[in-house]
Each structure stands twice: as structure tokens, then as C-alpha cells.
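Dear support,

I submitted the protein below through the web form. The confirmation email said the job was done, but the results page showed an empty box. After a refresh the structure appeared. I'm attaching both so you can tell me whether what I see now is the final result or a partial one.
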Amino acid sequence: MYKLILIEDELQTLEQISELVDWNSNNIDLVGSFTSAEEAKNYIINNTVDFIISDICMPGMDGVELAKFCFYNYPHIKIVFITAFRNFDYALSAIQYGIVSYVTKPILYSKLMESINLLLLKVQNTPSVSVSDKHLQDDNDTSLQSLTSKVFKYIENNYYKQISLASAASALNFNTSYLSRAFKEKTNQNFSTYLHKYRVEKACDLIKNTNLKISAIASMVGFNDADYFYKIFKRYTGLTPLAYKNTHEGEIKDE
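What the results page shows now:
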């Protein structure tokens, strides 16, 4: 029989899952139930485990960290995540660690059994790609598009402030590391590069269409350090701000 452990910090949910399924009839032996990923990790190190059904958001070590640990140390272990919709974007960040499926809360028997069947199919080396894998990838693509749109909007509304990847992640309720990876994956550039380009674009508009001092423009587009602004501006335009201004002298902004 395949050996499975459950991990859920909410004791009531943990008991619900353990009682919801007739494990033996599915050729599964429920060998452990844990309220923390750290406890489960210690068990995994000292015992044989084939399957894990785990909550993703828990105090201390969370589900993604445990999945990463298993991926690099016990790659044969197949994992299903339990997650709330509000945590779904974070759950998707663990796809790289071979997550088989996910079950959203509140947990339904039919959805739980779908995921259990996928676990069994995985270990039977079924050649076809699981429906859940495709669903996760489709959801991931949609999620990345939504995320980048939110980041673009955040920068558009706040570029003149002292913002950063960390402040964007906090404002948008995303994990900072996940936001960084996802934005880079979707745009082929990191957050700071896009922010610099956006600020330089705004600076160019101001240089061409106002008589403001360069130092004032630098401050207006989010640069507190004028020297750093000059450096970034030249990096993306090939010109110093003053040379850019002289090049576009006399141009009138289209109305």
C-alpha cells in the first residue's frame, strides 16, 4: 500500500480529511497526520512516505517550503495542496516542485478524490499529462497575466514615489520572491528595469514639454539622487538629460 501523510494546521480540517476517505480501499495507508510542516519534515526524514496532502499556508515552514524540500531530497513523493482561493497565486508558485494537484477549501469529497486518483495515476507512470497539470498551467498563465497587469498599474500610479519590488508585493498582497519570478517570466525583465524605463519615459516627456530644471524632473519621476538619475537616463536613451533636451528643443507636445 502507498503511504500517505496529511498536514493541516487547523485540527478540525485535519480530522475532516482523515475521516472523509476510505484510504484502505484506495490502496493507501494513512501513516501520519501533522499540524505543522516541520513535524512532517522530521517524519519524512525517518520514514517512508509516498504521498502528501498538505495545507499551503501554515505558521513557520509552509507547504511550498516543504514541497521544495521534498523535490530536492525525496523526489518520488507526490504532493497535493489544500489552499484557499485567496492563496491560489502563491500555490501556483510551487508548480516547479512537481505538485500534482490542489484542493480548494471548503473541501469537497469529489474534489479530494479527484486529486487522490491523480496521485495514484502518477505513481503508475501513466504517460498522459494529467488534466490537473494542464488546469494548473492554464490557471498559472492567467494568473501571471493578471499579476503583471496589476504591477503595471501599480507603477503607473506610484512611479513618482519611493517604490520597490517589496512595496509592490506588499500593496498587491503577493509573496515578494514569487512576484519577482512571475514578473520576470512574463515580461523578460525584472521589476527595477521596468520601473527605470517607465520613469525615464516620463522624464523624457517632461524634458520635451516643460521648462523645468533637470533636478526637479528627476525628483518628479521618483529619483532622489540626481546623479543616479543622470546615469539611468543615459543608460536607456544614450544621452544625458541636457543633451536630450537640446536635441528636442522647440518640439511642441501634441494635443
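Response: this is the final, complete result; the empty box was a page-load delay. Residues 37 and 61 are 6 Å apart (CA to CA).
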